[in-house]
# Entry
Amino acid sequence: MKGFGVLLQKEWREQIRNFKLLWIPLVFIIFGILEPVTNHFLPEIMKSVGNMPEGVEFPWPEFAPKDILVSLMGQYQSIGLLIIVLAFIGAISSERKSGTATLLYVRPLSYSSYFLSKWTMINALVLFSVWVGFLAGWYYTSQLFGSIPATDVVAFLAAYSLWIIFAVSIVLALSAWLPTGGVAALGLFLTMIMAILDSVIGAYWTVTPWKLSTYASYILMGSMDYPTFWKTAGLTVFLIILLILFGTYMAGRNAAKTTV
Amino acid sequence: MSILLEATGLSKRYGEQKAVDAVTFTLDAYTSTALIGPNGAGKTTTLSMLAGLVTQTEGSIAFEGSSDRESRSHIGFLPQYPKFFPWLTAIEFTEMAAKISGMSAREARAESQKTLEFVGLGDALNKRTGTFSGGMKQRLGLAQAIVHKPKLLLLDEPVSALDPVGRRQIMNLLKELQQQTTILYSTHILNDAEEMTDQLLFMQHGKLIDQGSLDDFRQRYAEPKIRIEFEGTDELLRFVQTAPWQVEATGSIGWIDLSVENSSMQDVLALLSTGRYGVRKVERQSASLEEIFMKVVQ
# Structure
């Protein structure tokens, strides 16, 4: 782990000076606020701008507070993940391509320090963003729809955080392995394949990291079958460790591809 | 003089193509070696292997007798076009480089400041590297390469991207460093190599085709011409009329090509010492590094 602290400091400075520490949490907070607010005021908005014939009544579903957080998670699963992927897709591959990694690779640093410093900082930033986003959503949901017990929210966020760490690990490992374009293509391909697999055999294939977001919502709703969840969490942690090992190995193997 | 680095049978293959082919040489401590060759000769690949950036396909590199990866903390490397994280300041970058190479935080801070001042970036310590000009980047590149006081400094075309003023400044810095460390640098600017070299390594098509000191090369490739500067054109004319050799004359200077005459330098000096001709200067024409280079690669 030689040089881990120094590299972590470098990553920290990068997130601050590239304003990622500002805009990524801000985007998640905006989504966190918009979800309960739009759901609460949507009937009013539709009435005022909708061009509905007179006398027509549109029955809006009654949302429970927890439904709002689950719905917010849906936003994070699509737009949130897209932001994470776009922001960090070139975390390693771009440094290699631009040649900025060269002056690091010629020094006696360990590639595990190099990979883990990025992994730690990106996860910290993304988890912070997701948590403050959900906290903002929770606050407005409590104000507009009713309260949700804090313990339920924390358990829900803990489960969802494991999924986020897994997603970040995939992005970073791919970035260590492939050029930036390749990461994007393979990331897209994997997402599609996993979505198809989940729709076809999802009912039987219960122990998989791709179910974690669904399980997080079950935890929030109080309907989780915990033995299945713990198996899934264990498998996810195992896969995260494998991804870290793979990413570290690929960062070292591809060091020679850095632009000199 | 002790051997600092020994490269034995160093080869690098990319698929079917051999970028470097069985290169063997040694670097003595506190010497300066120029790696010379045309584009595509394998200079950068060789330096990259020595820096530990590229793994050799065959052969070995021993640094102070060891092939340990830890030896990298004693090596400084400057790529041809050094790239920096644009959001870091000059001192932050050099400090980071020093710390990764094993210096304590306090030592790294002090050495970074000293080194940046040495390379002429004392006024730009806290400026972000993204705002630097090409010359400043090259200076910063040099600073990060020497901040941890390496025993071996590897420089890939350290001055080729600079204008004449910047080139001169960097060359002066390198000459100062010559006293403190061992330097191996690649270049195709032969005038610069001529100024600062103890050993020359000539590469072509991935192979080390010749090596030796500059004096060795000068002797081996010396021009067999004698240049005689007379006091005036009349003196030269008298010499041309009386000397038993064919003399090529330009102004008050005469040239004798010994390769076509059946005589030696001593014969010419013997005639000139008779005192019949007013002579200002006699010298044997030595080959420039450029001429040596052209002969070696042909």
